[in-house]
Design brief:
mainly beta, seven-stranded mixed sheet, 11 strands
Length: about 120
């Protein structure tokens, strides 16, 4: 089973950009679909973006479509979330997750392994 560690969060002004990284341990990373979720204070955790095992299939929440891009480098056991044109409503703890399937998944319950999260704060 992989273990996940996120990095790259921080404080940014509205309109700015951040790139989150999620490093996975283990030699089976390429067999997992990967996803990013976020949880704002007082709200439920929600889906942001997901990518299949090869990186050729992705899907996004409507709220981030056109602004965020998910990608992966299997050789580096890493998945990324490039976040552009950030808005204050993007403020949340962002979590990386792995699902034991090769296809894209969007539901929290379909993910088997979670990282500890990284805080993203967007100021207005």
């Amino acid at each position: 089973q992989v273990q996940l560690v996120e990095s790259g969060g921080g404080l940014v002004q509205a309109g700015g950009s951040l790139r989150l990284s999620c490093a996975a341990s283990g030699r089976t990373f390429s067999t997992y679909a990967m996803g990013w979720f976020r949880q704002a204070s007082g709200k439920e955790r929600e889906f942001v973006a997901a990518i299949n095992w090869s990186g050729y299939s992705t899907t996004y929440a409507d709220s981030v479509k056109g602004r965020f891009t998910i990608s992966r480098e299997n050789a580096k056991n890493t998945v990324y979330l490039q976040m552009n044109r950030l808005k204050p409503e993007d403020t949340a703890v962002y979590y990386c997750a792995a699902a034991r399937t090769r296809v894209v998944r969007t539901s929290l319950s379909e993910y088997d392994v979670w990282g500890q999260g990284t805080q993203v704060t967007v100021s207005s």
